[in-house]
Amino acid sequence: MTARTPLSAIALVGPVQLMVGGIIFLPAIYVFWLSLNQSSFGQAASFVGLANYAKVLSDPYFWRALVNTVIVVAVVVHLELLLGLLMALFFASGVPFRPILLAIVLAPYAVSEVSAVVMWRYLFEPDVGMMSQMLSFLGLPPIEWAVKPSHGLFMVSLLSIWLHLPFSFIIIYAARLSIPSDLYEAGAIDGASSWTAFRRITLPLLMPALLIAALFRYIFAFRLFSEVWLMTGGGPARTTEVLAVYLYLEAFRYNAFGSAAATGWLLVLASLLLALFYLRRLYREMFGKHV
Amino acid sequence: MSKPPSLSRAALKLLGVLVIVAWSVLPIALIAMSSFKSDRDIFSLTSRFSFAPTLANYELLWSRWGDFFFGLWNSFIVTVGATVLAVLVSLLAGFAYSRHASKGLQASAFFLIFIRLIPPIVITLPLFPVVNWLGLNDTHLILIVLYATFFVSLGTIVMRTFIDQIPRELDEAAMIDGASQMQIVWRIILPMAAQGMLAVAVFVIVYAWNEFLFAFIFTTTKAKTAPLVISEMIGAVEGVEWGVLFAASTVQLLPVLAFVILMQKHLVAGLTAGAVKG
Lengths: 291, 278
Description:
Radius of gyration of chain B: 24 Å
Low-confidence stretches of chain A: none
Mean pLDDT of chain A: 90
Mean pLDDT of chain B: 89
Structural class of chain B: mainly alpha
Low-confidence stretches of chain B: none
Number of strands of chain B: 0
Largest sheet of chain B: none
Helix content of chain A: over 70%
Shape of chain A: globular
Largest interface: A-B, 97 and 95 residues
Shape of chain B: globular
Number of helices of chain A: 12
Oligomer: heterodimer
Structural class of chain A: mainly alpha
Radius of gyration of chain A: 23 Å
Strand content of chain B: under 5%
Strand content of chain A: under 5%
Strand order of the largest sheet of chain A: 1-2
């Protein structure tokens, strides 16, 4: 189509574009400019080139935050997809009281990060929490999220998986429901075992949905802030910080806008990199270069 | 392949159901239940499921944390505002994207999705001084605009998917009869796209009601939302007043939980329309 965009269409998409452009895009560009300057609250900016990036990249706390982020994202997204897949297959195999069970599975979607932190902290409260008691019953030590960094990150991951599993599950389940059942009937006639059916029919046909769910979750898990902030505050001794927490502290506690901005742009670049595959596919679909 | 005995199969299924239920609702149920426990019962091992219910925590919440109810009211205003704004704006744009196709529009749709990838915390840096300068710090308006903005991309995609299903002949006929663009949206599209609007609304409501980061950065006293007050309570109590914390979490959680369960059909429809097709 080579049609020009009618004026009325421009007017209709105007508000959306204005909001997104003015409140997300322009500030993001401005962050880039900030990242090249030295500045703080009420202080005029002075151009310093890539010095902020150099500073951030030589800050051990930044690297700690980056490593923590990568660990949490990898654990959360992959476990979540695996659990979502298992649950989708379980639902597809027929479950009793399906509508009620579906509502139950969706419940965590309604919970705020704040309330979720209250819940899981209570469950894992070292002396008396239900989970801590279960652990001690199994002869395991309690989870000391406020003391041990690895335990803090474990709690954050658990919390994050719990909160976002409904999202991954629904996307995978919807895709599973759209696989025609004759495929399985044909497979059964050919004598395929359920494992073969899973490998040859279910998995390949679910792949696009799994990829979409993975991409969305990578991008969203990468910006993780609230769970960490509310669970550990980045402590003890800045050992459980993730990138968003590092950025927040640099900007709003240490007033180092330049290095916060540099961190921000590194976050943006990483998000774009993660989404590159999806964006390219989308671009091709939209602009008609079907390959 | 021989079928496994059906009895063990049923038992396995039952076990699966139990695990799923425990995982999804046990944390929620435990909080809601514990909010009716006395301090002694909250940490007593014997009274996990049987205890004498009391409203003491709710009374304490009311008398000592009046801030919390103020926060709930703020959350309500912000949620309604963000939802109305996001749904209307997405409806208009979704209509344009559904009915017109041009290079420029396609590019702008790509821009919408692309922009959604920028992490919210990044834009707080430049917005913070600007918001201060405009005097919008600690107001409902700033949260309404921010929440709506972060949902209009998804909202527009969902609306387009739903409006695509409304036959074009309807609005073309209205156009021949001399209806204006806005009249078509208002009279024809809006009633028929109600499903889609509801789907978008569910997302925005859940998001705006629960959001923490923007509320944390852009509000302090006048416009602070319920999640922010609860986070202050977590900081203030440090393992002491759990009961009050449970009461607050329960009050904050239950309305939106009921809402999600009621609207689950729309939530699922929106998720599949927005994520899989978009």
